[in-house]
Task: inverse folding
């Protein structure tokens, strides 16, 4: 499967590309400058410029014309289909230099703050930096390139443009009717606590509820939204509570929508404690099952491990059975 033109433009490392196809260009500020590298153009007064960052990333302009990275290859004598194939091969063979997330954030923070940027309280979905998101999902979440692109598109992932929180990953949250109700932001290095909208408020929503078909009557409940995303990519209906604690509103939403609930909590102390509270909140309205994974948490589990845990899930007796001594 080949990536489309826009995906290729967002993922390619411009610095690496220039070294391969126009090594004589000199990097200055936001662009490479020098004599035109195209055959047939005698550029006595250097007029060529290739932008490597910002709004016009991968675009070039010269006295002989202008275009994007695909047009650049065309002018080099490589036609459209071959140009797409070349860029796909570069990415698939990992010849493109993908810097670490930490390095990318460090570079971005050095830039001057852009004018008229919204503050943190404003809608954070101000722009998408797909290359940063792909690096994060591949390096930290161990996704393949194509799976990372699918996750970004399906969940509308983005980043803050506000300098103070630059490159915090923003995950929008939707209700059952696919209407955005709030968002949560996470620092790529996980060294800082997640930020919610409203700031400091509790998350009384179920992440990923909008992606579960209305006719589906059972669900897997997990702590992390990344766990819900991964399980959903494997075909399992999963929702996240944004942590171990289940609020009364979340419990009510689950009981109104589903008949069977599979609890898949982390094995740490917080997860074990929250698991018992979740049973009390959901019982006896729904049938509850425990999922026991071999991994410490769901985010580290394999697809085969999850399948096995669902098959061997343990049924939990309703709370009133305990109360009546049955």
Result:
């Amino acid at each position: 499967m080949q990536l489309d033109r826009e995906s290729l433009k967002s993922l390619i490392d411009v610095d690496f590309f220039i070294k391969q196809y126009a090594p004589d260009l000199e990097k200055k500020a936001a662009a490479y400058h020098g004599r035109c590298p195209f055959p047939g153009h005698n550029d006595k007064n250097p007029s060529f410029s290739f932008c490597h960052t910002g709004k016009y990333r991968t675009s070039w302009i010269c006295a002989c014309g202008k275009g994007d990275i695909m047009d650049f290859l065309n002018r080099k004598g490589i036609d459209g289909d071959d140009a797409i194939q070349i860029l796909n091969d570069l990415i698939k063979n990992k010849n493109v230099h993908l810097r670490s997330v930490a390095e990318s954030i460090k570079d971005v923070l050095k830039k001057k703050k852009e004018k008229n940027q919204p503050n943190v309280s404003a809608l954070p979905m101000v722009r998408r930096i797909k290359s940063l998101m792909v690096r994060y999902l591949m390096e930290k979440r161990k996704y393949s390139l194509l799976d990372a692109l699918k996750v970004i598109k399906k969940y509308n992932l983005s980043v803050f443009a506000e300098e103070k929180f630059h490159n915090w990953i923003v995950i929008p949250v939707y209700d059952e009717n696919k209407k955005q109700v709030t968002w949560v932001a996470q620092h790529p290095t996980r060294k800082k606590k997640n930020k919610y909208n409203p700031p400091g408020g509790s998350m009384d929503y179920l992440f990923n509820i909008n992606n579960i078909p209305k006719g589906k009557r059972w669900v897997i409940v997990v702590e992390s939204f990344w766990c819900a995303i991964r399980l959903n990519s494997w075909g399992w209906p999963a929702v996240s509570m944004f942590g171990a604690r289940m609020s009364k509103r979340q419990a009510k939403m689950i009981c109104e929508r589903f008949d069977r609930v599979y609890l898949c909590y982390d094995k740490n102390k917080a997860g074990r404690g929250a698991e018992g509270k979740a049973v009390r909140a959901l019982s006896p309205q729904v049938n509850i099952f425990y999922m026991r994974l071999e991994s410490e948490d769901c985010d580290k589990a394999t697809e085969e491990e999850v399948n096995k845990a669902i098959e061997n899930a343990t049924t939990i007796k309703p709370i009133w059975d305990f109360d009546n001594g049955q």
